[in-house]
Amino acid sequence: MSILEVKNISKKFMRGDRGFYAVEDVSFSVAKGELVYIKGKSGSGKSTLLNLIAGILRPDTGSINFNTVDISTYTDDKISEYRNISVGYVPQSLGTLPNLTIAENVELPIHIYKKHEPAKERALMLLDRMQILSLKDEFPRSLSGGELKRVLLARALMNEPELIIADELTSDLDSATTKDIMKILYDIHESGTTLLMVTHEDDIIRTKDRVIHMEAGRLSAE
């Protein structure tokens, strides 16, 4: 059974007075409980594709069906609810709020759309799972890149989403940190959560998982 079905989606941007397709006529599906990697060179449209699936961008054409419902027809409020409850999105950029502690950053999705109470206990449990519980009262500026990636992953898990979307989660990390984070992700996957990941690192991809290749805005092979 597919949890995600992308059908012929395209997204066009303007560069000066000329348009270009960041994503063009892309179709694929992800089964419930599957782990799928999207690979491709920089500028191939991978991040734009994830932003479309996460509801941050809307496709110009085509449909994105999550549990058989087309999210591209959602209102802004409904898309925000989808992104905070059904999907856990880990962006490539380190999007924490600098004036909140690490625990407060992780709690944010629950405060927006309450799904679990109390929020603080769940945040602390997730920080412990990410092996950074000791940093709960620190502010983002004092954390390393690898630690901040763990914070973002913890935040993405706050509302127990059915789908985790991660954009280059292990980029710019040393091999030991990458191994630790991937172990956490694999454990999350084994517990039943569906994962969709953009990566350019061959050594984190397991042979049993599916890889989709993207080139110049299109899927080139699978």
Short description:
By secondary structure, the chain is an alpha/beta fold.
Q: Which segments are poorly predicted (pLDDT under 50) over 5 or more consecutive residues?
A: none
Structural class: alpha/beta
Helix count from the secondary structure assignment: 6
Mean pLDDT: 91
Largest sheet: 6 strands, mixed
Query: Which range does the strand content fall in?
Result: 25-35%
Global outline: globular
- In which range does the helix fraction lie? 25-40%
The strand count comes to: 10
Give the C-alpha Rg: 17 Å
Topology summary:
Blueprint lengths: L1 E14 L2 E14 L3 E5 L6 H8 L7 E6 L2 E2 L5 H11 E4 L11 H11 L6 H11 L15 H12 L6 E5 L7 H16 L3 E5 L11 E6 L2 E4 L1
Parallel strand pairs: 3-8, 3-9, 6-7, 7-8
Antiparallel strand pairs: 1-2, 1-4, 4-5, 9-10
Helix pairs in contact: 3-4, 3-5, 4-5
